[in-house]
UniProtKB/TrEMBL annotation:
Lineage of the organism: Bacteria, Bacillati, Bacillota, Bacilli, Bacillales
Descriptive protein name: Aminotransferase
A Pfam cross-reference name: Aminotran_1_2
GO molecular function: pyridoxal phosphate binding; transaminase activity
Top-level taxon in the UniProt lineage: Bacteria
Organism of origin: Kurthia sibirica
Cofactor(s) for this UniProt protein: pyridoxal 5'-phosphate
InterPro entries linked to this entry: Aminotransferase_I/II_large, LL-DAP_aminotransferase, NHTrfase_class1_PyrdxlP-BS, PyrdxlP-dep_Trfase, PyrdxlP-dep_Trfase_major, PyrdxlP-dep_Trfase_small
Alphabetized UniProt keyword annotations: Aminotransferase, Transferase
PANTHER family in the cross-refs: AMINO ACID AMINOTRANSFERASE (PTHR42832), L-GLUTAMINE--4-(METHYLSULFANYL)-2-OXOBUTANOATE AMINOTRANSFERASE (PTHR42832:SF3)
Amino acid sequence: MKIERSKLMAKFPKAIFGDLKAAANRKEATGIKLIDLSLGSPDLPPNEKVRMELSKQAALANSYGYTLGGTEKFNEAVANYYNRRSSVTLNPKTDIIQTMGSQEGLVHLPMALCNQGDIVLTTDPGYVAYEAGINMAQAEGYYMPLTSTNEFLPDFDAIPDEVCARAKLLILNLPGNPVPAMPSIAFFNKTVAFAKKHNIIVLHDAAYSEFYFDGSRPLSFLEAEGAMEVGIEINSLSKSFSLAGARIAYIAGNADIIKIIGELKSNLDYGTFRPIQDAAVVALDNAEEITEELRTVFSRRHKILANGLLNIGWEVVPSTGGMFVYAKYPQQQFNDIDFVYHVIEQTGVVIVPGSIFGKSGENYVRIALVQPEELIIEALERLATL
Ligand SMILES: Cc1ncc(COP(=O)(O)O)c(C=O)c1O
């Protein structure tokens, strides 16, 4: 029998991470200790209270049934968290839906809202799951460049009218991956006005909402006036609570949109393991304490890495938040893909080329703040030798 990929599969290119890992492994085999700053996988353990709740609930015999989605307790914990953090009022019954990690939500969501050929507006560079979701829906992506001239924010005024007319969905991510630009209320207000004018649903990915370093938290999109009329926000416990492997996230916002996503999800999965949901409730109920600890660690790392790169002649995109440093390296004789392999080969430091997130990422790299300070300092020392 001949086994063939569907035509759609051509739209899902092989991710570069496997090749980077293979190059890193070859380097490690020569006796060099790698410093891996590639994946945005949090290195800190989840808070002890969260882990204890998970193991307590997992030990109970009656914890193993289908959950069919978020428990009442989980949705209430999300609503309370939003209320405490952002003064946003959410109805736990209608305005929140759980997803099995935000990746799952992001790749499925466009299917629920877009028809074949509709346009989805998103950023270049942008997180790779947006494109996967656009492809799953057989929609078309329109990529708004994030560049230094527009302070790494999308410029809605530059989008042609005919594109706006065909656009169904706008995906934003602030502070983002790979570009850690921060949102302002002025930008979100502008987003709401743009969405209303052109009848476009807004999806804000707030995966890095608890990573900020100067005391001012990134705004929730739902804080902007009128945001609940036009959009939703997806957030995850993966990064802010170091629960990446537990696969738990949620979408909050416009009840009509949440209802449609619920209809799709009822065909896709049977919900997250209840002990994980219970542990997530403990995390959200203790969010202030848990995320403050995270910020103490990450803000130091951010300062060390950003300043260290500046000192060795790199152009660091300024930011006060996010989990990554996004920077232009001085060795511009290399394109960004060749450069990261060169860096692995010469130093054993593993970083990610900007162009895998979109064309505007060419000549930039993304460096994740996922190693202890001493290793970040050592990585800087090695990068200085290039
Ligand atoms: C911007 C952004 N959104 C979503 C995700 C997916 O995270 P998860 O599926 O663990 O919630 C990531 C992971 O790196 C990300 O960077």
